[in-house]
Amino acid sequence: MPRTAAPHSDDLLDDVRGVVSQSLLGIAEALSALIGTLVGHSALVIFTEDCTGRPQKKSGAAHIVETVTIAELDVIRAGADDAPVVRAAVIGGEPRPVAVWTADTAAILVLVDVEGERIPHDVARRIASIWQLVALSIRQQVAAAGPAYLADSRAASRDRASVIADLTDAHATALESMLVVLRSGQHSDAAARQRAVDIAASAMVRLRSVSDRDRLLSEEPVHSAFERLRDDLAPLVRHGGLDVEFVPPPESGRPLPGEVAHAARAVVRGAVLALSDDSRVSRVRIQWDCDGSNLLIGVRDNGAGEERTGTSALTQLAGRVSVLDGSFSVQATPGWGSQLDIVLPLDSAAPAILPQADGLTDREREVLALLAQGWRNRAIGLELTISENTVKFHVANVLRKTGTASRAELAAQVR
Prior knowledge:
14 helices; alpha+beta; 5-stranded mixed β-sheet; Heat Shock Protein 90
């Protein structure tokens, strides 16, 4: 992507506004176009744990964005410097010149095939400022995500966990068998055998590392999820004059699926903010617990106990809970305050299925899930990091295999 003259400050602010106003599907492409005016690159990759189902947002060269892995991004993040420099890193399976920025949210921005051997200091600082705003926007969009996005995120988390488990078992078995054979002494070249043993052992370590990393994205210990909530609310406690009592869950509680942990923190943050809007509220009690199948959340204030059901803030929170098949109730007791009780199931319901859909490939099922939610071809391509022509090909196959004549008929038959 060729560089053009750097924009003036006012124009840059307008451009940044244009990026953060994009949906989660389009934000990487918009950011790449903006940064391309400052630094030439062939691909842009965002890696954020705020999006548990699809932690990567990508734009640019297909041979890079379609092959980049979480393991590669983990290595890149570990080697990121405070002052971004152009350096070589493996991404998309090959060493390429990259530059990396880390936001306060811990999300990273990676520019791939960066033009030039260095990035001017003022340009690097400008990109850092832009990235901070965009990363914050991503976190806020995920916190306010609608039912369709959250449902897709949960499905993606479930599918990814299943795939990584299968891959781990298959590759671990193969590597363990290799070790048994190479250690048997049937080969005369001891040095070659030792080298092969070292390579196989190293491969197993890397494979387990990928599995562990994916598990961290897919689920989170309930106690650490609660501690992250405490950190999220620290500024409100410190500067807002609100007395918050935290009652943590037992450390032995069942781990939370990634999207449940993220939603739980977002819902509690929203609830505390909604309750503290009442100037008469000075104290809030937050309690988490697990019953083995559900995360149980209680939020109570010491306000006047006025009826709050139907307020816009609580309605939005109830909708977020609903998409995760949870329950949300508010009880107000005059003179005693308000109590919010939230239940989030830890096991998702079976995904929607379509009659006669047994012959679909995994990719076609991904396309079907997004078609059923009304997504257009371009948006599907951006989400799945495939070309629009490839999406059209998959859509045609889905229609043919399911015996439906149109996208509308397809969506209508999903149950």
